Amino acid sequence: MFTNNQIFAAPLAGITDRPFRRIVRCFSPDAPLVTEMISCHSLVGAHKNCLRNFDSYADEGNVGAQIFGADVGLMADAARILQDAGAKWIDINMGCPVPKVATRAGAGAHLMRDHKLAGQIMHAVVRAVNIPVSIKTRLGWDDEHRDWRDLINIAADCGVQFVALHGRTRAQLYLGNAVHPDVSDAPIPIIANGDIKNADDLRGLDDLGYSGAMIGRGILGRPWVLAEMLGQGGAPDNVGRVVLEHLEYALEYYGEKNAIPMFRKHAAWYSAGMPNSSDFRIKVNQIVDEGALKVAIRDFWGII
Asked: What's the CA gap between 40 and 76, in Å, rounded?
């Protein structure tokens, strides 16, 4: 069975921002977490409309910063910036399937189709920093090109220290069941990713050669799930208090105008499966100010 530093929180665009990582830290002080993917162009250009370009990770513990892009030099520069900001390791996105990344930008999952460029990027990033470098990728572009082993061998040759392998192809997006192949002969440690949501889903992964597991969508509305999977705790007695604390972190980070619409999805995930959750989500989606949202959360979870 895996231990504390072998259960990762996956990078999730629009979700694993600093406020979310802070609330996860309340339950899992030492777990490895990964940031949202960060554009090398935006980071190096210090685009002011993207707050995560200016995050400091010095107080966040074991956090890896994920970058994406197709420009070798900018990827190396971005890695240096994130190292200086306190990231504990750099992760290169080689699996994002969305068109604006994988096709129009030639990054993310596109690098599974261009192993030469992928190798150049990995080589440059590894040599740009003094901290570990990992990659996150998929089984391949489609069923006819399940060449993840080739990419992992290139990664090992470049000095990449571990890989998170999502058990779907790019063509599958997030449809169908994830498949976790045997990786016992891989040259570097492999972290399993895809459809892992609870402790039962960990069974058998170590027998297949995996060195850990990475939790993606299973953490939505359940920031305690990493600790729960390790037998170190579970859902709190009143989830509403966690929701309010998460909201405070979001308000502090984004300000009221931006935090409220961004937080609606989190409120919905926290309420999933509870009585009257549909009515709660409809109500929350109409709220535009901090006070009203806090009242709605207190009322729904019965917080006096």
From this structure: 9
Q: Which positions are catalytic?
A: 96
Would you say 262 and 250 are in contact if contact means Cβ atoms under 8 Å apart?
yes
40 φ, ψ (degrees, to nearest 5): -65, -35
Q: How far apart are CA 65 and CA 33, in angstroms?
A: 9
DSSP helix/strand/coil, 10: coil
Q: Is 127 left (phi over 0), alpha (psi -120 to 50) or beta?
A: alpha
- State pLDDT tens for residues 68-120: 999 999 999 999 999 999 999 999 999 999 888 977 788 999 999 999 999 99
Beta-carbon contacts of 18 under 8 Å, excluding residues fewer than 6 positions away, are 51, 52, 55, 60, 249, 253
pTM: 0.95
Q: What is the pLDDT of residue 211?
A: 96
**Cα distance between residue 222 and residue 155, in whole Å:** 32
DSSP codes joined into one string, 240-289: HHHHHHHHHHHHHHH-HHHHHHHHHHHHHHHHTTSTTHHHHHHHHTT--S
- 96 burial (CB, 10 Å; 0-12 / 13-18 / 19+) is buried
Which residues are within 8 A (CB) of 288 and not within 5 positions of it... i.e. 6 or more apart?
260, 261
Whether the CB-CB separation of 117 and 156 falls below 8 Å is answered with: no
* Residue with token string 């994406």: 68
Domains of the chain: 4-229 (3.20.20.70), 239-301 (1.10.1200)
Burial of 46: CB neighbours in 10 Å, binned 0-12, 13-18, 19+? exposed
Q: Where are the alpha helices (DSSP H) in 45-186?
A: 72-84, 99-102, 115-128, 148-158
| CA 7/CA 99 separation, integer angstroms | 29
